[in-house]
Amino acid sequence: MNLGQYNTLTILRDTDPGLYLGDGQDNEVLLPHRYKPESYEIDDEIEVFLYLDNEERPIATTDEPYLTLNTFGYLRCCDVNAFGAFMDWGLVKQLFVPFKEQARPMKVGSWYVVYLYIDDKTNRLVGSSKTNKYLSNDDMTLEKYQEVDVLVTHLTEKGANVIINGLHKGLVYIDDIYEDLRSGDQIKAYIKNIREDKKVDVVLQRIGYRSIEPNADYIMEELKAAGGFLALNDKSSPETIKDLLGMSKKLFKKAIGTLYKNKLIHIKEEGIELI
Fold first, then answer.
1. H or E stretch covering 255
2. Which tens digit of pLDDT belongs to each residue from 49-101?
3. Which homologous superfamily does the CATH classification assign to the domain defined by 147-205?
């Protein structure tokens, strides 16, 4: 059984406290009564999340946490005591973040990017807002123009610092931000550049002509299908463009303009032609 992760377990028996589940290796865990499915049979399989209850005993739940083991989430601080902070992570028992794992002192009601790990000494699930120590830009498998998942950690004068694919650090420069971004946003992005010092530049739109998909890609495919030439250009009538490509003249002009800048087509009096 894997703590802090989803496990597919077998229903062994029904008791007053709830269902006892097993992993086929003589390990059992309780799924409390309030999480029992409406209908089930003994020996059915069920997917549950495992964590520790208030007595530090493994417990199963069908609730879905906001993050799992060795991943990042954006969590709200619910309480602070003499030992640390307690975060709402979607489960009945709150997630503990000790003071030593706080990048800055946490305040009740504020939100923080938190990493979930197992403390080696106590074997407890613990959170940390010192995100940099769980990220590395060594041995990256990223490629230029690659689509990635990013989590915005914080905003600075330079731009938005992001976590890439839950593994690496990156930056969206302020000049490349064309929408409202906030800490905690989880969005798709694209690798713009990987520097020699292993810093990664990220953008929120596809690079080059792909940034206006599907129109540019569609025109490229139509050009290829037509042997490399289409009898359309920026002087064609909106009706003609609509009939042939099913798009407005405004979108057509934007698409061919970008294809031209990327040196993918010639724009001639007779029409557009692949280079």
1. helix 249-261
2. 999 999 999 999 999 999 999 999 999 999 999 999 999 999 999 999 999 99
3. Nucleic acid-binding proteins (2.40.50.140)
Closest CA to 71 of 31, 131, 29: 131
So where are the chain's domains?
A: 6-61, 72-132, 147-205, 210-274
| Collapsed DSSP state (helix, strand, coil) of residue 17 | coil
pLDDT digits (tens, 9 = 90+) for 22-53: 999 999 999 999 999 999 999 999 999 999 99
Task: Report pLDDT for 245.
Answer: 87
Q: Is 127 exposed, middle or buried (0-12, 13-18, 19+ CB in 10 A)?
A: buried
Q: Dig out the tokens for 48 from the structure.
A: 């549950």
Taking a C-beta distance cutoff of 8 angstroms, is the pair 186, 168 a contact?
Answer: no
Q: Which residues contact 274 (CB under 8 A, 6 or more apart)?
A: 220, 223, 224, 228, 229, 264, 265, 266
For residue 68, how far is the Cα from the chain centroid? 13
Question: In this structure, what DSSP letter does residue 202 have?
Answer: E
